[in-house]
């Protein structure tokens, strides 16, 4: 084979593989997650990494959605989004608690009650 033929074959093989990749990507879209694996809460005191799957998994803490999400609905269209959907980062006069107050009360309370996880120092949670 001469050099020109080899280049032509390599180009055609590359084009075919590219087309197969594009079609495969379009034909098999990535499934969306039913629930998040982990959530990063960005705070002024240091970010907090929350392992959602560990808390929701029946083999670990096994919490139900409504245990942490008081406005939880069985109707997927009415489910609350992020915490800041209801709770503001800063205090406002809308009657809702500030996000940090809710998280401190809920997380620390649950950890103290169950004897699990960090509750002693701020840096046990606020590390990143």
Write the layout of secondary structure elements.
Blueprint: H1 3-27, E1 39-41, E2 48-50, H2 52-56, H3 65-68, H4 99-114
Antiparallel strand pairs: 1-2
Would you kindly provide a written description of the structure presented here, covering whatever features stand out?
The protein has 128 residues and is mainly alpha-helical. The protein has 2 domains: 1-30; 39-124, Cytochrome C3 (Alpha-Beta Complex), CATH 3.90.10.10. The protein is 39% helix and 5% strand. The protein is built from 4 helices and 2 strands; from the N terminus they run H-E-E-H-H-H. The chain has a two-stranded antiparallel ribbon. A hairpin with a 6-residue loop joins strand 1 (39-41) and strand 2 (48-50). It starts with a helix and ends in a 14-residue tail after the last helix.
Annotation field: number of helices: 4
Order of helices and strands: HEEHHH
Shape: elongated
Q: Largest sheet, described in full?
A: 2 strands, antiparallel
Would you tell me which CATH topology of the largest domain applies? Cytochrome C3
Instruction: Calculate the mean pLDDT score and round it.
Output: 82
The span between the termini is 59 Å
**What is the strand arrangement across the widest sheet?**
1-2
- Going by CATH, what is the homologous superfamily of the largest domain? Cytochrome C3
Provide the low-confidence segments as ranges. Answer: none
Return the domain count. 2
CATH architecture of the largest domain: Alpha-Beta Complex
Please identify the top-level CATH class of the largest domain. Alpha Beta
Query: In percent, how much strand structure appears in the residues?
Result: under 5%
Look at the helices and sheets and give the structural class.
mainly alpha
Using DSSP, what is the number of strands?
A: 2
């Amino acid at each position: 084979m001469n050099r020109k033929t080899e280049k032509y074959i390599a180009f055609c093989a590359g084009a075919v593989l590219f087309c197969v990749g594009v079609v495969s990507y379009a034909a098999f879209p990535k499934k969306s997650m039913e629930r998040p694996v982990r959530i990063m809460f960005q705070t002024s005191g240091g970010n907090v990494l929350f392992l959602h799957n560990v808390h929701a998994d029946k083999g670990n803490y096994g919490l139900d959605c409504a245990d942490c999400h008081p406005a939880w609905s069985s109707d997927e269209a009415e489910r609350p989004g992020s915490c800041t959907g209801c709770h503001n980062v800063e205090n406002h006069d809308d009657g809702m608690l500030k996000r940090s107050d809710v998280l401190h009360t809920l997380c620390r309370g649950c950890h103290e009650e169950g004897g699990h996880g960090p509750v002693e120092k701020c840096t046990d949670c606020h590390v990143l």
